[in-house]
Write a structure and sequence with these properties.
This protein is α/β, with parallel strands linked by helices. The protein is built from three helices and nine strands; from the N terminus they run αβββββαββββα. Strands 1, 2, 3, 4, 5, 6, 7, 8 and 9 form a nine-stranded mixed beta sheet that branches. The longest helix has 24 residues.
């Protein structure tokens, strides 16, 4: 009786050790748009709120949407921060890098702004059925002081995923976000 118990204990110990080094998920970041060259003088200031979304998007996990609509987390990878905060940071950096606004800030910065950019994460996942990374954000520019919606638009991009794993999924989602950010920055800078 002692031998099977020792063998079982040794197997459990070995599996516990094996999970210590290689079990940690890879961490992936999202990129902002690069600087656009010489800044253009502008009079507008914008506050960028953290995007809202359903509970699975509030985490730092990469999401897969199954053909029936079920959501699951893609193993082996995670985002560098909670997804809404990471997207907010990349929107702010992309707007700053475009150099067309007087200032870009967060709500807690207590900077007086002309507009607030609010957004919602409608999709930020790998669609398993189509093999695509899908990024879908809705955005509204709210006039400061009046609360009136000055403009609203939905931004969507789809990028093929060669293989549904953490590295390929994160890369494709980053590319799709890059397309959405380029469209969003152009829209904000055009004053719409």
């Amino acid at each position: 009786m002692i031998r099977p118990t020792l063998a079982l204990a040794a197997a459990l110990f070995a599996s516990a050790l094996g999970g210590c080094g290689g079990g940690a998920p890879l961490t992936f970041d999202l990129m902002a748009l690069p600087a656009a060259g010489r800044p253009v003088a502008a009079a507008r200031a914008i506050v960028v709120a953290e995007p809202i979304g359903i509970q699975p998007f509030e985490a730092d996990r990469i999401i897969v949407r199954e053909p029936g609509g079920a959501l699951s987390f893609l193993g082996g990878g995670q985002w560098a921060d909670r997804l809404p905060r990471l997207i907010q940071t990349r929107i702010i950096q992309s707007l700053e890098n475009a150099g067309r606004l007087r200032s870009v800030s967060r709500p807690g910065d207590k900077i007086v702004a002309d507009f607030q950019l609010i957004s919602e994460i409608r999709a930020f996942d790998i669609a398993a059925g189509s093999g695509e990374a899908v990024v879908d954000l809705s955005a509204k520019l709210i006039a400061d002081g009046t609360g009136k919606v000055a403009a609203a638009r939905i931004f969507t991009a789809r990028v093929p995923v060669t293989k549904v794993d953490a590295a390929n999924g994160a890369r494709a989602l980053d590319q799709a976000l890059g397309t959405v950010l380029a469209d969003m920055v152009g829209w904000v800078n055009a004053g719409r």
